[in-house]
Amino acid sequence: MRQLCRGRLLGISVAIAHGVFSGSLNILLKFLLSRYQFSFLTLVQCLTSSTAALSLELLRRLGLIAVPPFGLSLARSFAGVTVLSTLQSSLTLWSLRGLSLPMYVVFKRCLPLVTMLIGVLVLKNGAPSPGVLAAVLITTCGAALAGAGDLTGDPMGYVTGVLAVLVHAAYLVLIQKASADTQHGPLTAQYAIAISATPLLVVLSFASTDAIHVWAFPGWKDPTMVCIFVACVLIGCAMNFTTLHCTYINSAVTTSFVGVVKSIATITVGMVAFSDVAPTSLFIAGVVVNTLGSIIYCVAKFLETRKQSHYEDLETQQPQGEERSQVETSCLLSWRSCRRRRWLAGPKVER
């Protein structure tokens, strides 16, 4: 029981950290795009990946982290995740350029539904619980309601926004699949992804001329802009790790719901700081519905956790010299079946 509570506390802590880093990165990137007209998005992505790769390699060589050395087998294990991670980051940056920050958040709030559907098809773990399903549908309806009041963005921004949601959902599901198919933890996953993606991003940064023209950018004379740029790179590294860690410990759908919870603060900051969209009644109603869906999801996951604890107690505290009742046997068989399908599997923590 104590181990279960410790695991759940770790899962909640990682989810909160992911929400903080993700929301902060969205706001800072929007500052770079809107206030400073910093359009070198490929370079930001390249520096984020290379910083993570160099830092993790240095820590590995110093013996401070226990990850295997990079090789062909490690790269092959995370090849699909690497491709989707790179594509998802690119689409996110481009959709931030074409959409207002609140409207970008509206698109991201459709992520739980897409993640759940792709997860059912790829992970083949059966249908979600009624509570989770209701929370996902309510959240998606809230996103549609909030988005109905704003159709003023760049058409290409809407295209990249839809693609970003699809690729992001596939990325999260593939992370969860990799956590089940490999013995590597989230730190090893980030190490492999960063090293694999960095050479490609370096080539893309030169092909897009970002790495060439960025030196002539006049904003480098502004210390505030430089600080925001450095913060984006560092927070991007932290966000990538918490994305992997949250998905490993919790699930792909839970990670997508973290984005829904942190969207309220992001929307508020976006409306106050950028003034690129007015808070209409439809938009506010959509935010309220989204909040309701998030609350329902938290309650549903809490009930699932309590049920898991009950099943573990039945499994570990068997009455000696007595046969189990039919109800206990049914519960234990159901619990073991869920464990085999990794519905309620414990976290894979990497030292």
From TrEMBL:
Listed transmembrane segments: 104-123, 130-149, 155-175, 187-208, 223-241, 253-274, 280-300
Membrane topology: Multi-pass membrane protein
UniProt keyword annotations, A-Z: Membrane, Transmembrane, Transmembrane helix
InterPro entries assigned: TPT_transporter
Main location: membrane
One Gene Ontology cellular component: membrane
Location relative to the cell: Membrane
Superkingdom assignment: Eukaryota
Name this protein carries in UniProt: Solute carrier family 35 member D3
Naturally occurring in which organism (per UniProt): Cnephaeus nilssonii (Northern bat)
